[in-house]
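Example record for the data management plan.
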Amino acid sequence: MSIRFSERPGRHERHYRRRVGNPLYAAAPAVVDDAALLDAQRRDHDELLAFVDELRATLQRAVDLPPNAGSDVVLEIKEDLDRLYETSAGLAEDHAANQAAIAELLDVIMRNIERGAAGDPQALAELAQERVARETHCALLRSPLVADLLHPDSCIASDELAPCLLSADDGELGAALQLFDHAQLAQLHDDARRCLAACAVPPATAVTRLERIAAQLARVHAAGALN
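Corresponding structural encoding:
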């Protein structure tokens, strides 16, 4: 291999690296192919450039907002910032500074919205819930696997979900499992069992991951039964 892996890969390179030499994936490449790796890195670079351009434009739109801007315009910028934050989590390179800038601007927008909702207890309660949900979501996005799964055009196809999670490390698996409801976890557990059964020599770590999926399924089932 003459093409080096990236120190901070993007989602395309990450998914390529997950599959190389991994017996859990059907028809996975046995060794790294320079052309395939370079193509994945090129895709990640293109996405990075597009993100930077859109982030700059969105931040400028926010700076240029007049004091009397309509709520629809403000909410549109807020939605764009939420999406850009989620996108940044899956990109190549370190985007801590960009995420901090987005979070700061979102906080300003949220505080303005909350001031406008003063005197409406229900609206304020819903905004408080939104803040908590955003904090939880941002915490999950610290996991690159979560960011890859949540991308609208995810590299992880539905038939690759089981091998992907069976190959994940403990932290990423724990974060990813929080994304699924009971029905999805039940399907994932079935798919993961079939994936292991089809593997001639399944990695020992994959068996442990299957047990964690089963445990999460049991917890969600028990929680649903109590409600």
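Summary line stored alongside the record: The first helix runs from residue 11 to 19.
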